[in-house]
Amino acid sequence: MKDVSNLGPKGDALACSLCMYAQEEKRRLRDELENVQQKKIFKESKKRTQQRKEPCPADSVESLMAEMPFVDTDIEDEFVMHATSEIKIKKKRKRTTGKEIEEDSERKKKKKKQCQPNYFVSLPITNPEITDSIQAVQDAIIQKDQRLSKAMIRSGSLHVTMLVMHLSNEEEISIAVGALSDSKDFVEDLLKGKIVDLSFQGIDHFRNQVGFVKLAENDHTTILTEIAETMKKIFQGKGILTEEGRAFKPHLTFMKLSKSTQLRKQVKKIDSSLYEDFKSHYFGDEILHRLDLCSMLKKKQPNGYYYCESSIVFGEKHTAEPDDAELVSLSKRLVENAVLKAVQQYLEETQNKSRQTDGSPVKSEEVAASGSKNESDSDNTK
Question: Which of 88, 133, 144, 244 is the right S-S partner for 283, CB 3.0 to 4.6 Å?
Answer without folding.
Answer: 133
